[in-house]
Amino acid sequence: MRPVRFVALGDSLTEGVGDLTEDGPRGWAALLAPSLGAGTEFTNLAVSGAQTRDVLERQTPAALALRPDLVAVVVGVNDTLRHTFDIHAVAARLDQVYAACAREGATLLTACLPDPGAMLGLPRALAAPLARRQRAVNAVVHALSERYGALHLDASDGGWIADRALWSADRLHPGERGHRRLAARFHTLLTAAGHATGRPPSLEPESPAPTRAASLLWLATAGTAWVARRCRDLLPQLLRLALEELRHSARGTGADLDVAASAAVAAALAALPERRPAGAPAPTALPSRAVLPGSGPLDLEVGVS
């Protein structure tokens, strides 16, 4: 039996930012790979800053050329941090990525993620629009993961978010402890599905947590540059969204924004075409009711067909 071929796609989280070794970033996927079984062949194609478009157009073709058995697709946060955010486009791209992997017989590994506004501790008026975007992405990822039979990890909430010991200086990426926690949670999923035969990744870090001085240094250097880039791209739109948030809050109509976001997710999922290889069974239908976290349930009157 040939070794398992594991390919990881995504952005800085999967690239390993926050878990720096002498050889560069490592991350949860690299920590997970040895626990899949002896001789696992691991390739990490994730790139910092990648959006769903990058995963679809660049990373997926490279991944499929490797004929993988297992493909991790964890992406979407960077889409929410751009002024071009469009949940319809995100859903369409992820659907194409998942479908392409499924057609090749690869097992999909996916995850829902925390919203960046909460992680950064932004004021509510600024954080709420980002949270709504991330909840929309998570709803799409959850629905499509179910549709394509992916092994799906909900990492969008829970105690690990509040535990600062698990996070790096930038407050957006896990530190080594956090990456190990993610790897162990994915290993649990894979073991239950019969895809992992090795011991679970260790939760004990090999390196000390970043000091306060290191955190301040990051904020003064790389952190400042990151904020400057986002200010040029996202901030003007985010300020407009924050004003809209404040107006709705003053009127007591804030729930209308959640309803609109839920409707956008439903429309994006309903617009997806059926994707089925010849002779293969139909993918799982999307649920008739979907809940966008933080809002009420929404009937999806039009299914994917």
Automatic annotation (TrEMBL):
| Alphabetical list of Pfam families matching this protein | Lipase_GDSL_2
Stretches of Low complexity bias are at 276-288
- Annotated segments matching region Disordered: 276-305
| Residues annotated as domain SGNH hydrolase-type esterase | 8-181
Which InterPro entries is this protein grouped with? GDSL_Rv0518-like, SGNH_hydro, SGNH_hydro_sf
Source species, domain of life: Bacteria
Protein name according to UniProt: Lipase
Organism taxonomic ancestry: Bacteria, Bacillati, Actinomycetota, Actinomycetes, Kitasatosporales
